[in-house]
Structure formats: structure tokens, C-alpha cells
């Protein structure tokens, strides 16, 4: 076999491999979901309806549940209170109910710092219901850390 023939064979193999790889890459890209779009809600469909606290409750008809950084199960609720501050008269905060591992009973609770404010109770509540589930989980873990620090003192 001549060197020219060998080079031609290698060129064809290489071109075929590059073409096949490009086709596979395009097919694989279509098959893999766009997680940023799906979770971030930047796609054509809009945000996932249950990505926020209020959306989750509306979609699932129950409060969101999380495993805290302490390994315990929690659900989250919302409460409001007057602040006495005329610029932000109402504040909303989160109440995390800690459940028994079996779910059979309430073992305790934690509260967050104020997470939203409004001119009235409804405004503060509505602002808190716009928090994402990621923000709720962050607030839960922060409340667990604060409790652990207080227990050490």
C-alpha cells in the first residue's frame, strides 16, 4: 500500500470520527435537560410554580418540608408581627416545626429572624411567600446554627 493511500484512509477515518462526534454531541445536548432553565425559571415556560414558598403551598396544598443541617425533619410556616417601626410596620418571620423522625409528633420549633416587611400584615406575608425554597432552607440551617451556638454558651 502506498503512503498516499494510507494518508487518504487516515484522513477519511479522522473526518468520519469528527463528524460522528459532532452528531453525537448535538443529540446528547438535546437529551440533557437545561437545569439552569428548569430550576431558575428562565425558560419559555416561566418559573416553576412550586419554586417559592407560596407557590409550593398552592401547588401541593401543604407546607414545604426539609431535612435540616442537624439531620432532623422540619416543616415551615409563616407568622407576622407588628414592628413598631412606622417605615416597616409589619414583619414576617419563619417558624420551623421539628418533627419526630417517625413524623408522629412535634418535637420542637425554631424561628428565623425577620425575612420580609410590609406596610400591613398582608404585605409582609405576601413578601415572605415570595421567598424561594432555597432561601427557606438557608434560613432553616441558619436557625439551627444559631440554636447550636446558644446551647454552647
How would you explain this protein's 3D organization?
Strand 2 and strand 3 (90-99) form a beta hairpin. The protein contains five helices and four strands, in the order αααββββαα. The chain is elongated and about 90 Å long. It has a four-stranded antiparallel beta sheet. By secondary structure, the chain is α+β, with helices and mostly antiparallel strands. The model has no long low-confidence stretch (mean pLDDT 85). It has two domains: 3-32; 53-152. The longest helix is centred in the first third of the chain and has 29 residues, at 3-31. 47% of the residues lie in helices and 24% in strands.
Any chance you could write out the topology, listing elements then pairs?
Layout lengths: L2 H29 L3 H6 L12 H8 L4 E3 L5 E10 L7 E10 L6 E13 L2 H9 L3 H20 L1
Antiparallel strand pairs: 1-2, 2-3, 3-4
List keywords for this structure.
about 150 residues, elongated, alpha+beta
Question: Cα-atom Rg, whole angstroms?
Answer: 26 Å
| Residue share in β-strands | 15-25%
The global form is elongated
Distance from first to last alpha carbon: 84 Å
Number of domains: 2
**Category from helices, strands and their pairing:** alpha+beta
Order of helices and strands: HHHEEEEHH
Largest sheet, described in full? Answer: 4 strands, antiparallel
Number of E-type strands: 4
Uncertain stretches of 5 or more adjacent residues: none
Strand order of the largest sheet: 1-2-3-4
Amino acid at each position: 500500500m502506498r503512503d498516499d493511500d494510507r494518508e487518504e484512509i487516515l484522513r477519511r477515518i479522522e473526518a468520519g470520527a469528527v463528524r460522528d462526534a459532532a452528531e453525537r454531541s448535538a443529540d446528547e445536548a438535546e437529551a440533557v435537560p437545561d437545569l439552569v432553565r428548569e430550576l431558575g425559571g428562565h425558560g419559555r415556560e416561566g418559573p416553576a410554580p412550586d419554586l417559592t414558598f407560596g407557590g409550593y403551598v398552592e401547588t401541593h396544598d401543604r407546607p414545604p418540608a426539609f431535612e435540616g443541617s442537624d439531620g432532623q425533619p422540619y416543616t415551615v410556616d409563616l407568622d407576622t408581627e407588628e414592628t413598631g417601626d412606622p417605615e416597616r410596620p409589619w414583619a414576617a418571620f419563619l417558624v420551623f416545626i421539628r418533627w419526630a423522625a417517625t413524623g408522629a409528633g412535634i418535637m420542637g420549633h425554631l424561628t428565623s429572624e425577620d425575612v420580609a416587611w410590609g406596610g400591613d400584615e398582608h404585605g409582609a406575608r405576601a413578601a415572605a411567600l415570595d421567598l424561594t425554597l432555597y432561601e427557606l432552607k438557608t434560613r432553616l440551617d441558619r436557625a439551627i446554627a444559631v440554636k447550636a451556638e446558644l446551647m454552647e454558651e
